[in-house]
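Example 3.
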Amino acid sequence: MSLSRITFLPYQRSIEVSEGDSLIRTALHAGVHINASCGGEGVCAKCRVQVEQGDVAEGLSERLSPEDIEAGYRLACQAKIKGDATIRVPVESAMDRSMFDQQVHPRQTARIQQMDFDSLKERGLFIPPVEKAYLELPPPDAQNNMPDVTRLIEFLKLQSDEHKLELTIPVIRKLPSILRAHDFKVTVTLVRPVRDDGKTLITNIQPGDTTDQAYAIALDVGTTTIYAQLIDLKSGASLAEDGDFNGQISYGEDVISRMIFAEKGDGLETLQRTVVGTINKVLGKIISRAGVEHENIATITMAGNTTMTQLLLAIDPSYLRRAPYVPASTMYPPFRAATIGIDLDEHVIALLYPAVSSYVGGDIVAGIMGTGLYREEELTLFLDIGTNAEIVIGNKDWLACTACSAGPAFEGGGIEFGMRAAKGAIEDFSLDSVTFEPMLLTIGDVRPKGICGSGLIIMVAVMFEMGVINNRGKFNRDLDTERIREHNGVWEFVLAFEDQTQIGRDITISEIDIDNLIRAKGAVYSGCMTLLEEVGFSMDMIERIILAGGFGSYIDLEKAMTIGLLPEIDPARVIFIGNGSLMGARMSSLTNRIRKDVVEVTKKMTNFELSETPSYMDHYVAAMFIPHTEIEKFPKVKERVEAWKALASRN
Amino acid sequence: MSLSRITFLPYQRSIEVSEGDSLIRTALHAGVHINASCGGEGVCAKCRVQVEQGDVAEGLSERLSPEDIEAGYRLACQAKIKGDATIRVPVESAMDRSMFDQQVHPRQTARIQQMDFDSLKERGLFIPPVEKAYLELPPPDAQNNMPDVTRLIEFLKLQSDEHKLELTIPVIRKLPSILRAHDFKVTVTLVRPVRDDGKTLITNIQPGDTTDQAYAIALDVGTTTIYAQLIDLKSGASLAEDGDFNGQISYGEDVISRMIFAEKGDGLETLQRTVVGTINKVLGKIISRAGVEHENIATITMAGNTTMTQLLLAIDPSYLRRAPYVPASTMYPPFRAATIGIDLDEHVIALLYPAVSSYVGGDIVAGIMGTGLYREEELTLFLDIGTNAEIVIGNKDWLACTACSAGPAFEGGGIEFGMRAAKGAIEDFSLDSVTFEPMLLTIGDVRPKGICGSGLIIMVAVMFEMGVINNRGKFNRDLDTERIREHNGVWEFVLAFEDQTQIGRDITISEIDIDNLIRAKGAVYSGCMTLLEEVGFSMDMIERIILAGGFGSYIDLEKAMTIGLLPEIDPARVIFIGNGSLMGARMSSLTNRIRKDVVEVTKKMTNFELSETPSYMDHYVAAMFIPHTEIEKFPKVKERVEAWKALASRN
Ligand code: FES
Ligand code: FES
């Protein structure tokens, strides 16, 4: 694809982008503010820009006069890149040149790390947990009429030096007819023990040679969504992946409401059946899409938080939500998937990721195993942020973990106009430093409906840096803009006036919303602080951050540091792994090394209950500022704030 | 109980017996022949005897004239011992005194050996496979909120030095509520591994202290009958025992017809369901009779022949009955009993006795384990005789085994008037050496209906020793008795004329019947011979015989040696163990030592297929005589035959 060079005037900022990209997002990416109140739907006409050189595609609108069009004006939100161009952004306010460098900071998202099967192999970490072996057994005769099972086992001993083999009764049941139907030429599936002194289970026997068809399933059993991958055990490739909302949502959005439901009548059984129902739906899709036969699937590796795990196994979760928060177990033995209703063949072995505690579950452990952070030198902060935030800090020598309730702010909850990251959610934002006109970009480029979590972080960060709000999240009442106003006794900033929204009402962000965000980020940050302090480390020693879960993918790292959600670190040292639970499940499907290590890792993961750690409250109170009481912990934020302050005082 | 001394004249034989015993059986026991044709029902009046001193109870009959009664005549079959007495048996024939010592040889049955739990303990062979432990766990608090499973395991580690513990998911499911309902005071059931490096399974958890209630079930899955014992694991006692006919009988009497049925349609599933149905019926009876709670039953140990074992597990038995006679497996892993439909709690672990081959099954191995012969010096012949006879020979150093088809003669099959050992079956017999009048005693003391296996052996032995038949089973046509006759071209001996029978027909034993018995005993004896020869031993080296199965209990050992079924050996060296399968299952329920040993024992048991052993035919042909071509192998028989011969020539 050929790249086009776009230069924005008067800022003299250039950027290379692909043809077809949206002009307004190109501007944002280049760090250029363009007023935009309608989310990019083309109705506010605030995003007028003038094409000075080159050309763009589209961008015409009846909101532009023929003269304007003639003069090269286009709506930036409608225009698409079609080649090199120079674009002039109208600047309503007088400004000096220094402002040109103090514009929007382009969003810096985390580097995405994907699972790398080959490097796993290279590093000698590949110990296949499942192997298929094709055997041509000598048929029995009068001189050699040993039992079928003995024949099979002795042959494997002799030919492949296999020991400690065990067949389950269902396999023994199939053995006589399959051996004889195909002249004693068969393929066996060997499921390796995790412990070296364990037994190798022969879980399946098939006629002929099926060694090229060996598959496993990795499954993330999330509170909200169920994701599954169908994995080719030979190549490590994911042949199909799909997900669906966990059907349990009908019985409660979060783990707490599910636990409450489970305690009533046959609630537990209902929840168990429901989640298995969703799992079966997702598995059905990926299996048929990949065109794989059920018979050739050997294992399913599952990871979920402690509540989801107990619900999946129909284990009463009552004591998870009551002090002192005791899980039934953190380790489960392998079992046959069919026994809990999963629609896989009888021979399929299910493995469940072990957990650490009631609130640091198998999904987090899976993430730790998937990223391999437990094998590395670097001091790493692993964060999975949702309604609950799970925090793991450590490296190959030690691991500490905890969980805290962040509240729903990061998912748009508890925010008046908050919403999930769906169509119409304001997901990107900048502010004109003089006029305080916003640049709003929404998911789907439609008029705004609300604000999603990552948008909220950007807004609060931008407003803080520009001095629109102070470090306690209060609006600067002195600013000359009608957007800041008091409404029913609460101060707020109007992001979009009613005529520019989908909801027929002004969309605002209030001091209450900001306070909720501060509480959420404060909980996470002080959780990290507490954990570090407990093990004798400090925040500035963090060398790397790994973000897991949906939340981390779009987050603007600089802004997250500005509000004090993340410690200040080179954004290049922040990695996003997406669904860590699924990643870990996939890794375990592929190598027993991970399954061996996980036992040690969970033992090594020291769990801290924040409610039982007295310093947590102090850290929390200190984190109730933007970015923090001690802004010295955030030198770059301090620098940017001071630069804006200097600029503002000059205007 | 006081004993009475009974003296029989003219033989001058005395015997001490209990009051209430039958007079005629007392005579038999004393080795005194009394004519008796109606089986002891009191209708033939042949059993008249005269009470000369003392008195007997009952024995009056309208078949006796008032004068006879006055003179002290009584029917021996109706009379009961009530004190010391002298009884004269009328002797119709002239005889010299030497005959008095050549009368009936009283029946010598095998010494019954019962399982001896205490000696097992004394000999250090008691390694409990199941233990219950009562634990008072410290309840969780904020400082110690480890998972329930971890709490339990750590406590067991610390308090009882338990290691390698594993809980199944169903137990984990129960754990949280049971722990909390009873203040963390619980009883766990620990099922020990057979291999020292295996895991101890925690299969159950119960509130409070239930350590005094630990039970197991031993089960014999026989082709004809299912027997079960409920065993107290603390005392080793059998609290209840019961049996029932295997419901599979409706689908075929023997293993071959069952196998054929299993091959048709859903025959296999039908047979599986049916045998489990019988098992559940029997278990229901013993559990309710013993008043034991299902929850406190920890294991069920089962033994059956190879066919019954495969049918129980729904494993196609087709290849068991077809050359080269290959079982699916001879070892099965432990499994949960409920998975095959057995009506026991989900936690109950089922263990199946391993087999050696298609025709030497787990029932035989159980017998070997139950008797402990594999631990002893003595060279022992273990025999389980039915339609098939299983033979094991050996001691602690080596074991050889085989199976042969004996045919149904020992169970009364293939014998014109043959019947099972049920009411009306002639079970004991002697013959007047001059008049050839028989003494017939039937099961239940009723008029005869037929002949059971043990009766048949006695008849043939008695007739052979007296020269009524020769060593090829042919009648001496020269004898002066109407009882020997030709009927439809076949020579036969009339045991009871029609008016003395229940069936309105003469009951006879023919040369064809005798030939069938000779074939049956020949098969068994030559099987033993072949086995011994293959391992370089000979019959006279046998130091001990163990008889298992129903057949052995009533067998007259001397007679069995006379016909050449058993080698000649001191009858005191013959032991009857009854249901060896059940005995072995019970032993395994009580000590893991047996479970450990059985793996080695089955490996050590060298199986011989007689059809593949050329010498078998020669031995078989040589054994087709009474007692054998080489009568020198049976010196005592030879002696008796010669004594009778001398006597006969004198008369
Ligand atoms: S018209 Fe372009 S953002 Fe509103
Ligand atoms: S009357 Fe006594 S045996 Fe017949």
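Chain B is about 30% helix and 25% strand. Chain B touches chain A through 47 residues (CB under 8 Å).
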